[in-house]
Fold these 3 entries.
Entry 1:
Amino acid sequence: MSTYIELCQDMARDVGIPGTGPSTVTPTPEEEKDIVRYIKDADLDIQRMWFNWDFLWSEATLTPVAGVSTLTSPTDLAQWNTDSVVYNPTAEGWQPLAFVPWLQYREDYKYGTVATGTPEFFSVKPDNVMDIYPTPDSTTALTSEYWATPTELSAAADVSVIPVRFHRIIIARAKIYYAEQNDASEVLSGSIAEFTDLLLKLESDQLPGQRNRRFSLVQDLANYTVVPE
């Protein structure tokens, strides 16, 4: 496991900064300040590359208010998984809700008299708030999977949500920033090559339907998707 400060120190050694590197994530020397900033930015940059990284996956229980069609979103919500919304999931009669795109949903279910009862359909409004129809007449819970917003490294002991075995990719991306800022072509070429290789491995491991890309024999053809480069 590499903490924020350890990633900074590893990068400092890689690019040849004298000493052991930053001892704090609020250093005084400008060169060390740059290292700390590059690591933070690189971690966020990688997290933001795909909305549906597995390491950003989460799930929530949503409790409606009777007579209110909108649901309170998780505080860390970035994107809903619209294939996963289930009404009353712990009951024998649990029911998946059907997703309807917002413009169609608005036209079909939001004008005129809006029915109340057991929800059957839902949509996600442009402000990323989930709306269900019919408007619920009880507080029976729903569940949904979602992908969380990227989290920023802050304290020295913070650990990136990127899986530990891929933490080297953060340093590789940060070194690209460093090389571009300092016109270090030899660092840049090596860092781009390393980052590209690690990104392919991270995508194969942490994007749905991609894992077979890194097996010599495809294990599940029904779950095999290649992301175009």
Entry 2:
Amino acid sequence: MAQDGPRLSSFGGVGASNDAERLIAWVDWIEGLPQVNDLRKRSYELLGLAPGATAVDVGCGTGRAVADLASTGVAATGYDASESMIEMARRRFPGLDFRIGTAERLPVETASVQGYRAERLYQHLTIPAAGLAEVNRVLALGGRIVIVDLDYDTIRPGRRRSEHQ
């Protein structure tokens, strides 16, 4: 885990634990880092979605990416397995679409979305291939997928991506 940020014992079962507040604090801290913000913006570029396109952000957490995508006219829906995260996303971004769902089982019709995005999620899946099978099911022909996971050992406050290269 990145140094100097809030500490969290585990991501699993956050909704059923007392760690929801700490996870939200950790997500906020990570999302505030310049290199993470740059990476998030790059993920939107890679999706290449036009206004009116449909997208899912799986493992949406507190909803930042859904709000960003919606601000460009994309019909974005955020999915997270944690009720605590979905509740926080709804509070932070009222009027946007946030629902309970997992990477392995999304309540989405087959071949119905043009964009699939997941950030900081696949490294925590027990069987990532099950999540990828679900991507294959929900993504429309010609749709795009962007999966972003971070190397937390290289994240330090104040460091920019160019300092890693």
Entry 3:
Amino acid sequence: MALNILNKYIWLADTIYNAGSISLKEINSKWLKSNLSIGKPLTRRTFHNHKIAIEEIFDINIGCNPISNEYYIEDIEEFGKNELIKWLLNSFSISNIIQESKEIKYRIILDEVPSAQSFLADIIKAIRENNIVIMTYHPFWSSTPLEIEFYPYFVKLFNRRWYVYGRTETEDKVKVYALDRIKKLTGTNRKFVFPIDFAAVEFLNASIGIMKTDSEKPCKINIKAYAETTQYLLALPLHHSQQVVESTQDYTIFSYWLSPTDDFYQEILRKREYLEVVSPQGVREKLASIIHKLSEYYL
């Protein structure tokens, strides 16, 4: 599935969602004004094919009022709770606005996500169909690429990079791979069995970022935030388990339940002297060791 067709699905879902209720004629009017149309109308047959694909890929059900012949999103309240769909539609809406505002494109600056342009659409298709893929993967630590028979489970975007999680043919363990390290991806018609008891959200429930290790078990971590960092964390929590333990004029202590992986330490260090790990002592000492190593670079 090409990235362009995926964009068309998202455009259609976004258009119906924003309209609330809209006829096919009105959809076509908006479609012809978009860059995706290339000046060609959206036929009724193509519309219904897109509608079916949207339901299958994104679990967005598009209903039709038989009286007005207008289309709408069913179960709109549940739809609003789907963080992935909201992110996709929001991202596409912004992209569409930018495309239609070419006269000010140099005044809109976005972070590039290179991996989204390569294999994301193909991997999503393989995930949807539970198809095994063959990927040529070149990790940073290896001098030569690896040939991997891969069972893709789910994808995640973090710090401008897309990652895919899944099992390999030889290991019964869920591992993560960066899309921008994939050199070649070949789809197959061979199926794999996706575990019915596996949930992506639960798999990374106690993690910040992309990592999950057997050695770093989840634990309660207290972090003290100084100055305006408190307000930043209240507006954008470091982790979904975040809770306020103590608040004063000078600082706020937040509590978390998570695994202290490398991604965790990197997030803490990003806030420089404005965050302090209070407990547990082992996490505090490891962070101190990292900071000591950093200080040696500048002495």
